[in-house]
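Risk register update: the risk that structure generation would not scale has been downgraded. Supporting records follow, first protein first.
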Amino acid sequence: MNERLLHLAGLKGIARSYNDIWGQPQATSDHAAGALLAAMGVLAAGDAAPAAIEAAISAHEANERSELLPPVLVLYDDAPSWQLPASVAAAGAALNWRITTEDGALLEGVVAAELPASQRPPQGYHQLTLLRGSQALAACSLIVAPRTTYRPAALQGQAKLWGAAAQLYAVRSARNWGIGDYGDLLRLVELWGQAGAGVVGVNPLHAMFPHNPDHSSPYSPSSRLFLNLIYLDVEAIPDYAECARAQARVASPALRARLAALRAAELVNYAGVAEAKRPVLELLYTHFREQHLATDSARARAFEDFRRRRGSELRRHALFEALQAYFHRADDQVWGWPVWPAAYRDPASPAVAAFEREKAVAVEFFEYLQWQADEQLAAVGRRARELGMGVGLYVDLAVSIDRAGAEAWSEQSLYALDASVGAPPDEYNPKGQNWGLPPLDPARLRAAGYAPFIATLRANMAHAGALRIDHVMTLMRLYWIAPGGEPDDGAYVHYPFDDMLAILALESQRNQCLVIGEDLGTVADEVRVKLAAAGVLSYRVLFFERDGSGDFKPPASYPPQSIAVASTHDLATLAGWWQGHDLALRARLNLFPSPELRDQQIAERAQDRQRLLAALQREQLLPPGVSSDAQALPALDAACMRALHLYLARSPSQLVVAQLEDMLLALDAVNLPGTTDPQPNWRRKLTLALEDWAGDERFTALTRELARERTRPAGAPAAPAQ
């Protein structure tokens, strides 16, 4: 073990060790530490390693000594005192401070050990400047935040809501173009809202790759700041009602037949959907330019307002899309900006500026599409509020971005582009996981005043009643894997947890958006303690809620500040879990490290089925005629599916959410982590069309029973199983 190497790694946030999911300590190897330092731009390997390590340590310490103010100072509005950094006091007397608030007001005073309570700015984003006389010595961003995240009125006290979780692409309908779209999401919210649900969750809606629609994982987006264009409801765009050319194209026998085939397909044909939508969207944009932009109509002014609100972020995103489309048309092997001609890889280059001028219409096309996507998602959020849903639409935030996409191109300096994030080995993934996504460098993020993090929260909270943060532990630490490394030889890198949690609370309150933290896997105790104190809902999955003996915990033991679900998109469905379908698939794809582990998990699953039936029996939820013997129930039926959701509904968890795949008793999971080509991940459609749900007994019975169970007054006897 190279102590000086690990000391340097620690200065950069790389942890020396961590406790794995089994509670065993795992040390960071010298190789991992050196490789991750290199990914951060710190060279600490090779023949000159000892000297390079000492030079890097000295440079880090010298920078800290010379820093009068940090890049950003995050304070709580109710803190008893606001301490200034020790470096300020060490700078000597006769210093003044000035705070410029975000609305332009000025607060001033003489530097002391702390800022006086009488001159504190309100919650928000301000600028703190230190001066000697009229000379500014240092400045930093000052963020003042509340202690807790937003909690909607419907979840105050002991209130409990229920709802559904959908994969939007999987939704079938008689009117969509072969993939669920924002129009389907609107109808989904109406359907569940009118049945009494208080929340409808959806997979990440982040911007993907229009040039490569088959890049379909919503957790590997091009950008988390903008929306997925393939979900546009083409016929709901206002220009469609005005554009005879677009209507004629859609009415043509060739396109009608193509759309019918896309709808009928068992799997989503992303490329086929994109090919059908793109020409019509181009016609709609041309119509908009000719009939609205050219006449400065009300819609043209609304578009310009959207462009102003989203500013340079929108322009740069659209510029990326236009550049990628341009280079991909010339060479279909161009998969992203890292293989563009060198002159275009820098967003600030003269070549990019020239392209923006010369291809202004192509760039504006993508701005127009983002505007329409934003309008359609906003309509979903409004409809949820009109229906009186207590939470409404809840959206999902992916843990990072794809290194080939728009956000990585725009923010290259903020990411450790050579490293990847993932997860260490655990029970469900014994080999660990490499998600192939680059992490934000914590030091660079802090130096940027957390602006990228703030922008991401705002973009995703804009139309949502709740935000689920995938792998919420990223606020404290992320598991990094070096280039070419294996998931079991990674290391945790720490982030400024307290600062990021405070910013999350501020944006949550400003956007009136509930926060759900997906805290599954290897979770440090500190994460759960601080998330709970901040009002973030914990994510509780039936499969994982066990006591020390392995039995399923009773519903009453679930924490109130949580969302309870039977399964997730990365786990087996209820029906698939019950039949061991997921284990058979993993064995077929050679995902077990050894035959012994495979056999062990098959044996444990048989035990777990028995335990689950025993748990239902304890709650008097076994459906009539169902034995507590797992062998007598080879396949999960609708009655048992409902009983398992009623089991969760009896918990004090403030939210209980059912996956649509579980409601329909699907065997195959949405996604099998660690697989790509062998599995049709993110492509499976639901077996029931949206128009048929209202008359389907699985939907009507489940929503009826959930509504009855979740509105039961405290202390009232439980509803009998149906």
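Supporting record for the second protein:
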Amino acid sequence: MKLHIHDTFNTELPADTVLENTRRQVFEACFSFVKPTIPKNPVLIHATKEVASLLGINEKDIFSEDFLSIFSGQKIYENTKPFAMCYGGHQFGNWAGQLGDGRAINLFEIDYNNQHFALQLKGSGATPYSRTADGLAVLRSSIREHLCSEAMFYLGVSTTRSLSLILSGDEVVRDMLYDGHPAYEKGAIVCRVSETFIRFGNFEILASRQDTKNLKLLADYTIQHFYSEIKSSDKERYAELVKCVAERTLKMIIDWQRVGFVHGVMNTDNMSIIGNTIDYGPYGWLENYDPTWTPNTTDIQHKRYQFGQQGNIALWNLYKLANAMYPLVEEAKPFEEILQAFPRQYNKAYQVMMKQKLGLEKEYENDFQLIEELESILQNVETDMTIFFRNLAHFSTNFSEDENFKCIQSAFYSEDYTNAEIYNQWKNWIAKYVNRLRLEIKNEDDKKTSMNAVNPKYVLRNYMAQLAIDAANDGNYHLINELHELLKKPYDEQPENEKWFAKRPDWARHKVGCSMLSCSS
């Protein structure tokens, strides 16, 4: 297997001078060289052919010994030097100091077909940044990351990709319920792929240590390789970098809101500098429309990272990035202008996105009120977000209010919608919505097509991932492949897969993994 290696991060930025793989604080460096832990008996569970193709890896290569050895960490590819990044972060609003790649090891970078990719193993062993952890990953969390990375890509959300899912052959001890009963679980390794894995926290750790020299090196590296549109050569370029990062981050969050995705751990160390969704830990899809929902048990009390707050948290994190960049500019005004504009830009983008979900193109004064009323009514009765918006496309200006209501009836989890007051609220909203649809020019077929292009029919519901995990724990990987194929076409009807276009089953409401997860899952 021949790869087109072109390393930049570990050749252009300063390395940790200590070469021993011991837990420690790392200063005046952007990374530490470290080798993956050799797995006991690696077995390939699943590989993404489309991602392999991006990297110049053909199908024959995927099933080779080389592929298994390299992407399990068993062998280091010739003339490459794996490493772990040094970064800090604000976790749940508090500065946590040095964090770093505690269970991720960057293998190498590839140039292929005029595209650049960095490859990283998650769950491949301890690094200097592992603190008290073992640096390994379990099969259940690895399946969730592998499937979700690809699901998000096909939904049109900026994201890291996943090349492979490999069983390590090692047993990993985890206390999944945090109840003092740790147990052995199957270990696994995911190979993540992205243009870069640089996070907001990479800049924060350097700024926190007044390491302005390396902060500037990292910022210049980031601009050169990932923001070539930035042309200025003076201090303005660092404020412009924050502006570009804000624009990409805004787009990513709007897409999360559009498809009902909740990240769960929007700490600054989990925010990509290129606006990718990164680190699929306790994520989830909004099933019943509840803006206060979080998939993270660690966040259950304060709900900092709830669905409805993701835009505000993105802004909070951008403030921390701007603070980290400030030493390179030494002037607050450029950053203030960028950050103060963000809420206005976000609200505008959010309205545009919601209008697309509703099939509305023209501008009318009361559109935002129509959206607000809908979001309020959706919370009155437990309503499946994905099914509701997908079926909304069936509305017709030729139907009565009762006929249109029947189009969305299957989205409700209970009969509470039959309550007279709630039913009348729906009928009033439907009447306003249908009248608004009549002001559009496009015909109903075109409306339905445009709505179906932004409202997915299939998402990786939490219970679906759990079914794949349960089967995999029994040595059966067919559901991983079935879901992987299903989620490549989330906007298509796929009549043969209609069983997956269904509300969460009752058994999944309280099952661990189907409702909420912890940060270490």
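The mean pLDDT is 96. On this basis the risk owner (M.S.) recommends closing the item.
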